């Protein structure tokens, strides 16, 4: 029965007595005058301040805030009846008849299936009182349109407008009570707390600003509930509740905090800072609960056994142990965490969404609580069973016996026979019998036992070979699990190994309240509290003082995930350290003494770092902890490693490595962040490491610390980002650019660049030289040369160091040539490694520059005049500085011990560079005449490189045949040798069409690209597909992702999306969805306008998608489109199968090249053999790796004429 017509508030007469947080009857029960000093409208003026629009952002909330239910997190609870009623105070024995009979107030009353609530008005967000329907014993009518709602302890009297209205209300209430009782019988609800929606997360008394007496506050699920006192909480009769989906908690001062909603601000005060911190943590948990998703939980709860906690039977468990495959409640989850991740890996069904893959969810359907209880709880005596109301101590004792000791498990027939257990496990993983695998592991089978097959040595490998993906998922989740092992001689005696040695330490520390977000502000000394701290038995406890018996709080070592040491000036104490836990809390500690702080850090680290990673503790660190990672290009399995950051070095102990490895962060080739700051990508030469953030709090600290460590940390050479040869990247970038573009520039290094442009180049290089790419046309050589000189001049210690500067200058005065060179070599050996490498690279470059002095007018003497004062920072006051530079250039080969092979390589590369630029200048273009490049056979390696002169007319087929001729490679039948353009940065390659001209491709290659000739293994399958294909069109679905450059499609750059594509002879079209495909003129045509269209001739299609984009399949295409304005756009496509990929690429190949993919009769092209030498100099590559480019910045030997005047 629902009252559809609700009178407006203005039409209802109201009698107002005292408006307070408490109901009018409660005021009478204690003292009619007790609350008279509280002003009328307290909800708006004192206890509940209206939030300011300028300070509180208004979230999206329902138009009617009362449409939600009071207790549950479900979207809505059906309303049975609403309307205006006169309300009499609750009846008690000491209230007079007069007061009971004549004090009535108008109240807006709302009844749903769970609660009867009443409000001051129909516009109010928060009730005056709520009464659980489950606590109503009966409803009876009395005279004068009145009726009584009688609970176990109280009687509430209401008066309706008429007898008919009273009858409707009574019937609605009686029906709600009957339905509630029926539901209770069906669910077999516990009679202990019929009014309680679940076990509360936190309870206690708090002061509410504007209210004299304390209120009893309860945090349960995603709600905060207010009660007058503990007695009323136990009766279930409350004041109001606050839905935390629209709530926010804010710390205000030492003991106070604000709970902000769009309607009111609740200002609470706790007894102490510690108590306040606990309340903040509980309420922030309620917010997380309110904002969590139910998608995974609903899938897991499909199985009836998973709807009750596997340990205590509590309904709707929303946590799980993913290695035990059990669904558990929040209270049991806390005790599972106490057992440690080696016993139980606890994850939330609502918040840890990324953990729940399709395989893991399916695994819980096959195992889950039903199978888990059959094994782990097969022998639980009724007296030892847990219940939803069991105490934390009982839970901990029971769960330790159950999962750590295996006390109640069902024993396998092979129990105690290790060899038989291991053999049975290797057999079980090849089947779908997951319960057998669970029983074998739970009874002691070794998860990494040898299977007897070298090709599949472990059970995981056997399961993979058998294609049993659920078995693989279960085994992966238990790779690091410690299963209980019982003594086969005496089943009664149980034992298990303890990983960590006991670490003990005690003393006074200063600490602040724990926080759930990174500290942005400095904490003053006054904000720290002195606490007696004790580290013992894997628990760090802190007490009010050394005499206290009960700790204020504790941190379990098994829950610590990170330990960080901020810089000394971060907070009010010089010596501080931070402890991060799995529960997303950060604890800040401080000490008066640096030595004491260091000792505490050492002890805490020993307590939570496993023995196999203790090598990380041998040296000082700034940050230490465990992180998830994926190594190399294999993204199939997430592993857990231990990391320590010290200076610019990140040391790690990986899961599959017996010892620590070091990553030099300043030598990284790439450092980037993917996926909304959830994956840190570190690329060094030879491998890629993906570090993933499972916990935002400590991972954000890791991100900032690693980024800072990888950047240039100062002005000295050793503090710069470095290349492989210890040369600062900033120096290498400038030298490389001038070698490529400025060797013949007149007055190079003597002319100064524009001050503003020079400053801009230098600032960009100082900020992140690794990401800077200097390009001709964008930066002038004089600007770059001036930036290099300014960088060297501004070095605090100089290139030759302050301590050795005088010795270098004195050496210039030595007359004996041999003695002088020997002395220079000695001084060079005394330089720091980075200075020594930089000096060699710079002098090598200057030696090269002076070789072209007839063109650039910069001979050795002129270069010495420029660089002497720069390198020795003498401002031209000492002529010896120039003499030193001149000597080093003249005697470069002997001073730096340059061998003949290195010198020849440098000479060849510089010769090719100058020849190309001279030819380009003569024709008025940058790249004219024959181009000399390196082409590799089958793979990129020194022994496979071939240096080839590329005329303008050479095709890809001619280049391929020439490389094969040089290496005497015979072409067999169905050998499809092809020239590929390979992009190392994009991890993609493009087979060139046999008619494509090679020279334009070489002009567009970057330094990270090269050409390689190899067999195209997919060509035969492509030709067979095209032979059977009718027409030159193709259409279908592919997964699509834009590059960071905008294509105007409005798609997220972070993921792939399904899109429909149509390819024909003229263009490629993209459609958001399939609509009305119809047969038209022999081909398929779409009746609606495409979302995007590209001319087919302007596209370059590459095979492959770079791994760090996380493509959904391994069959991908990288497509590059260059517009008429030479703007480059790039996107990625993924196919579902390899055959589909070949079909799309074959069709692209076909339509882009006039219907031919491969010559009908491939033959060797007869053409003049190109001259492979220039005089006595072999042709060398113009493009290659960074090391090859760096080696090109070298001087010539005595044969300067051939370099200056190439034939």
UniProtKB/TrEMBL annotation:
Compartment(s) where it occurs, according to its Swiss-Prot or TrEMBL record: Cytoplasm
InterPro entries cross-referenced by the UniProt entry: Arf-Rho-GAP_ANK-PH_domain, ARFGAP/RecO, ArfGAP_dom, ArfGAP_dom_sf, PH-like_dom_sf, PH_domain, RA_dom, Rho_GTPase_activation_prot
MF term (GO), any: phosphatidylinositol-3,4,5-trisphosphate binding
A biological process term (GO) from this entry: signal transduction
Domain PH, first and last residues per copy: 78-178, 199-288, 502-609, 620-711, 1031-1153
GO cellular component, one term: trans-Golgi network
UniProtKB keywords: Cytoplasm, GTPase activation, Metal-binding, Phosphoprotein, Repeat, Zinc, Zinc-finger
UniProt KW Magnesium keyword: no
Record bears the keyword Phosphoprotein: yes
Annotated Ras-associating domain residues: 929-1018
All copies of domain Arf-GAP, residue ranges: 285-408
Domain Rho-GAP: 715-896
UniProt-recorded name of the protein: Arf-GAP with Rho-GAP domain, ANK repeat and PH domain-containing protein 1 isoform X5
């Amino acid at each position: 029965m629902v009252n559809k017509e609700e009178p407006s508030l203005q039409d209802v007469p109201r009698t107002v007595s005292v408006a307070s947080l408490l109901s009018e009857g409660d005021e009478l029960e204690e003292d009619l005058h007790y609350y008279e000093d509280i002003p009328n409208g307290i909800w708006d003026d004192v206890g509940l301040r209206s939030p300011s629009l300028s300070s509180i952002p208004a979230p999206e909330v329902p138009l009617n805030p009362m449409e939600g239910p009071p207790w549950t997190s479900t979207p809505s609870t059906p309303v049975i009846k609403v309307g205006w009623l006169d309300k009499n105070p609750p009846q008690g024995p000491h209230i007079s008849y007069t007061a009971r009979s004549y004090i009535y107030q108008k109240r807006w009353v709302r009844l749903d299936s769970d609660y009867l609530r009443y409000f001051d008005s129909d516009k109010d967000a928060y009730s005056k009182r709520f009464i659980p329907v489950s606590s109503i014993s009966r409803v009876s009518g009395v005279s004068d349109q009145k009726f009584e709602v009688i609970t176990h302890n109280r009687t509430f009297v209401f008066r309706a407008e008429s007898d008919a209205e009273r009858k409707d209300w009574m019937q609605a209430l009686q029906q709600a009570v009957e339905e509630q009782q029926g539901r209770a019988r069906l669910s077999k609800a516990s009679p202990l707390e019929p009014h309680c929606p679940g076990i509360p997360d936190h309870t206690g008394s708090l002061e509410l600003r504007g209210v004299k007496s304390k209120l009893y506050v309860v945090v349960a699920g995603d709600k905060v509930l207010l009660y007058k006192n503990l007695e009323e909480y136990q009766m279930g009769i409350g004041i109001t509740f606050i839905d935390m989906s629209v709530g926010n908690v804010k710390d205000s001062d030492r003991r106070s905090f604000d709970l902000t909603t769009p309607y009111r601000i609740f200002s609470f005060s706790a007894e102490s800072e510690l108590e306040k911190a606990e309340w903040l943590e509980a309420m922030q948990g309620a917010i997380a609960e309110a904002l969590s998703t139910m998608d995974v939980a609903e899938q897991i709860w499909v199985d009836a056994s998973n709807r009750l906690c596997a340990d205590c039977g509590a309904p709707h468990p929303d946590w799980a142990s993913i290695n035990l495959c059990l669904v558990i409640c929040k209270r049991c989850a806390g005790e599972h965490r106490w057992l440690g991740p080696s016993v139980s890996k606890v994850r939330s069904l609502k918040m840890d969404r990324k953990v729940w893959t399709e395989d893991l969810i399916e695994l819980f359907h096959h195992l889950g609580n039903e199978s888990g209880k059959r094994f782990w709880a097969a022998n639980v005596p009724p007296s030892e069973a847990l219940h939803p109301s069991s105490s934390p101590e009982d839970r901990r004792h029971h769960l330790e016996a159950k999962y750590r000791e295996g006390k109640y498990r069902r024993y396998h027939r092979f129990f105690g026979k290790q060899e038989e257990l291991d053999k049975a496990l290797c057999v079980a993983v090849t089947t779908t019998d997951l319960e057998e695998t669970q029983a074998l592991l739970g009874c002691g089978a070794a998860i990494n036992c040898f299977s007897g097959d070298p090709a599949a040595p472990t059970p995981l490998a056997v399961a993979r070979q058998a294609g049993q993906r659920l078995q693989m998922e279960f085994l992966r989740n238990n790779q690091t699990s410690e299963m209980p092992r019982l003594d086969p001689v005496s089943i009664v005696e149980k034992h298990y190994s303890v990983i960590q040695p006991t670490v003990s330490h005690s003393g006074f520390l200063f600490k602040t309240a724990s926080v759930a977000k990174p500290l942005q502000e400095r904490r003053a000394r006054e904000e720290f509290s002195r606490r007696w701290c004790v580290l013992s038995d894997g628990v760090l406890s802190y007490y009010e003082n050394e005499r206290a018996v009960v700790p204020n709080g504790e941190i379990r070592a098994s829950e610590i995930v990170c330990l960080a040491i901020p810089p000394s000036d971060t907070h009010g104490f010089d010596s501080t350290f931070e402890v991060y836990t799995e529960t997303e809390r950060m604890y800040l500690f401080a000490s008066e003494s640096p030595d004491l702080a260091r000792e505490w850090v050492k002890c805490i680290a020993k307590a939570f770092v496993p023995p196999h990673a203790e090598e990380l503790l041998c040296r000082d660190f700034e940050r230490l902890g465990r992180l998830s990672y994926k190594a190399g290009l294999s993204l199939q399995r997430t592993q857990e490693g231990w990391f320590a950051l010290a200076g610019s070095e990140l040391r790690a102990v990986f899961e599959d490595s017996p010892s620590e490895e070091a990553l030099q962060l300043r030598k990284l080739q790439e450092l980037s962040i993917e996926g909304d700051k959830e994956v840190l990508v570190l690329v060094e030469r030879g491998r890629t490491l993906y570090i993933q953030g499972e916990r935002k709090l400590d991972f954000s600290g890791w991100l900032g610390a690693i980024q800072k460590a990888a950047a240039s940390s100062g002005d000295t050479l050793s503090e710069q980002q470095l290349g492989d040869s210890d040369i600062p990247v900033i120096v290498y970038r400038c030298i490389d650019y001038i070698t490529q573009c400025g060797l013949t520039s007149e007055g190079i290094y003597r002319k100064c660049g524009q001050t503003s442009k020079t400053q801009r180049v230098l600032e960009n290089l100082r900020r992140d030289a690794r990401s800077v790419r200097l390009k001709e046309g964008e930066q002038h050589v004089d600007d770059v040369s001036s930036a290099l000189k300014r960088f060297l001049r501004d070095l605090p210690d100089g290139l030759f160091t302050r301590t050795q500067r005088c010795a270098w200058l004195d050496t210039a005065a030595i007359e004996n040539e041999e003695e002088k060179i020997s002395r220079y070599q000695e001084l060079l050996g005394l330089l720091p490694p980075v200075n020594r490498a930089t000096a060699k690279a710079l002098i090598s470059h200057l030696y090269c520059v002076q070789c072209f002095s007839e063109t650039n007018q910069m001979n050795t003497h002129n270069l010495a005049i420029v660089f002497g004062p720069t390198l020795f920072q003498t401002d031209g006051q000492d002529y010896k500085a120039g003499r030193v530079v001149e000597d080093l250039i003249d005697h470069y080969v002997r001073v730096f011990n340059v061998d003949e092979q290195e010198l020849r390589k440098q000479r060849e590369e510089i010769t090719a560079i100058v020849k190309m630029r001279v030819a380009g200048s003569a024709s008025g273009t940058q790249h004219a005449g024959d181009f000399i490049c390196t082409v590799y056979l089958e793979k990129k390696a020194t022994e496979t490189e071939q240096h080839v002169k590329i005329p303008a007319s050479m095709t890809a087929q001619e280049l391929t045949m020439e490389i094969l001729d040089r290496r005497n490679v015979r072409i067999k039948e169905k050998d499809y040798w092809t020239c590929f353009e390979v992009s190392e940065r994009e991890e993609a390659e493009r087979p060139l069409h046999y008619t494509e001209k090679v020279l334009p491709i070489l002009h567009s290659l970057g330094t990270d690209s090269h050409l390689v000739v190899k067999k195209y293994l997919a060509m035969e399958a492509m030709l067979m597909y095209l032979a059977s294909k009718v027409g030159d069109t193709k259409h279908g679905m592919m997964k699509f992702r834009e590059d960071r450059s905008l294509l105007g499609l409005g798609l997220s750059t972070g993921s792939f999306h399904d899109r429909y594509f149509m390819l024909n002879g003229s263009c490629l079209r993209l459609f958001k969805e399939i609509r009305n495909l119809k047969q038209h003129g022999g081909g398929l045509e779409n009746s609606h306008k495409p979302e995007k269209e590209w001319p087919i001739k302007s596209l370059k299609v590459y095979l492959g998608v770079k791994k760090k984009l996380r493509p959904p399949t391994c069959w991908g295409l990288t497509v590059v489109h260059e517009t008429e304005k030479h703007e480059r756009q790039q996107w990625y496509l993924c196919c579902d199968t390899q055959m589909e990929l070949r079909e799309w690429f074959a069709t692209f190949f076909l339509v882009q090249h006039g219907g031919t993919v491969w010559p009908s009769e491939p033959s060797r092209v007869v053409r003049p053999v190109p001259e492979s030498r220039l005089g006595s100099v072999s042709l060398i590559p113009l493009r290659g790796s960074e090391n090859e480019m760096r080696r090109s910045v070298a001087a010539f030997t005595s044969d300067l004429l051939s370099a200056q005047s190439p034939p």
